[in-house]
Specification:
14 helices, single chain, alpha+beta, elongated, 2 domains
């Protein structure tokens, strides 16, 4: 065992010596592998950041929340078909609220777009006004950075109060202290009583452009008769979600008077609905990354194979001497495989250092020069996870073994007598 370990170290020294004697040749030969490993590392880093943002997005939606809507949020259903569905009405929402037994809360929501917002003589566009129940405070949208959510009394009395999203807060009140101030939505004056904590990600940024007002207030000032409501259903826990979903679908079919053979004319939107879309994004990243990686590795394998074949030619006499002294074919093969693996492993080391530099420079540039996208950087770590480093190292060794296989076989097959005669 000790002899085996010593043999490995001796071969590693020989591999390092090859790098030192011919640094430029070794660098150029390893360049393809370095590029390939860099792509693997950066691809893994991007997917890690994507996973972080997806996890945050799922928190925004609520892992124990279902949303019954006319529309399919995933975009997998034909838009014209969805548009032809009947609207979900306030009466249907109230029936759902009365009949549902397993849900913790049943919350009506209705969105209205295109309403200008005025504050301090300035006009702002691009916000969504959401009419909802006071119980929306118990969903992920209810956690406030400043102030509070409207109460049941304010809800029932159609009070002119609003709780605004984080992006709206930053645009209208860049110096803070929004509570107690008054804004106008269209022609109607509202008092700001709270600010929702920042929830949006670069995937779900629009979620911070919402203004929450009592549903009765929206109904009085803007009308809801022609709008389709969304029904937010809070299960209370992730474990209850299946039970709540099953009951919700059954009740909704009853409320909408659907026959057994008729398809649902509504959608159940939840975090699970986005999993397929996220998988598609991941597969796309993997597909592009693997394609580029394979091309780089092909170039790298050819380059390292060439340098190892040159090394065999240069050391033919040495190989013949070793075989004459009793070295077995396996030992010769092992020597060249270790040397080629050292080449690729050193390339992996340079790739890891280079990728760390690229990642940190990119994050600094985004934070400094693109403040609107600075939240993107929060999901992408400024370091490489141990798993990525291990994967890069293992891949480099595998590529090294593949690169050195043909030269190793050639070296071990040399006739010692002929090898000793070579000049």
């Amino acid at each position: 065992m000790i002899l085996f370990i010593r043999n490995i170290f001796d071969n590693i020294k020989l591999g390092l010596n090859t790098l030192i004697v011919n640094p430029l040749r070794s660098f150029l030969a390893s360049l393809g592998v370095m590029v390939g490993i860099s792509i693997v590392i950066l691809m893994g880093w991007v997917l890690e950041g994507l996973d972080n943002s997806v996890s945050k997005t799922f928190e925004i939606i609520g892992v124990d929340m279902l949303y019954v809507t006319k529309w399919d949020w995933t975009g997998n259903t034909n838009w014209k078909f969805l548009r032809s569905r009947k609207n979900i009405t306030l009466d249907q929402t109230e029936m759902m609220k009365l009949m549902h037994n397993s849900a913790e809360y049943v919350i009506p929501n209705v969105n209205t777009w295109g309403k200008p917002v005025y504050y301090d003589g300035f006009k702002f566009d691009g916000f969504t006004v959401v009419g909802t129940s006071y119980q929306n405070a118990y969903t992920p949208a209810g956690e406030t950075l400043e102030g509070r959510y409207f109460t049941q009394f304010e809800d029932e009395q159609a009070a002119q109060v609003v709780t605004i999203g984080y992006n709206i807060y930053k645009q209208l009140f860049p110096e803070g202290n929004a509570t107690g101030k008054f804004i106008k939505i269209g022609k109607h004056k509202y008092e700001v009583i709270g600010v929702v904590k920042k929830r949006g990600t670069f995937i779900f940024d629009f979620i911070d452009n919402q203004i929450f007002i009592p549903l009765n207030s929206l109904s009085q000032n803007f009308g809801i008769s022609r709008r389709s409501l969304d029904i937010g259903i809070k299960a209370g826990s992730k474990e209850k979600l299946d039970q709540v979903r099953t009951e919700t679908i059954g009740l909704m079919r009853t409320i909408r008077d659907l026959k057994p053979n008729e398809k649902d004319d509504f959608s159940i939107n939840e975090t699970k609905a986005f999993e397929e879309n996220i998988k598609k994004i991941r597969y796309t990243v993997w597909g592009v990354g693997i394609g580029l990686t394979l091309l780089s590795f092909i170039v790298g394998v050819i380059g390292i194979m060439n340098i190892m074949l040159v090394s065999v030619s240069e050391r033919t006499k040495e190989i013949g001497l070793r075989k004459a002294l009793g070295a077995k074919k396996g030992a010769i093969r092992f020597q060249f495989l270790v040397e080629s693996s050292v080449l690729t492993l050193m390339g992996a080391g340079f790739s890891i250092i280079g990728c760390l530099g690229i990642i940190n420079i990119a994050l600094i540039i985004v934070k400094k020069y693109f403040p609107d996208f600075s939240d993107v950087a929060t999901f992408f770590p400024p370091f490489l996870s141990p798993q990525l480093v291990i994967v890069a190292s293992v891949v480099s060794v595998v590529v090294g073994i593949l690169s050195g296989l043909i030269p190793a076989i050639k070296a071990s097959s040399l006739d010692p007598v002929e090898a000793l005669r070579s000049e």
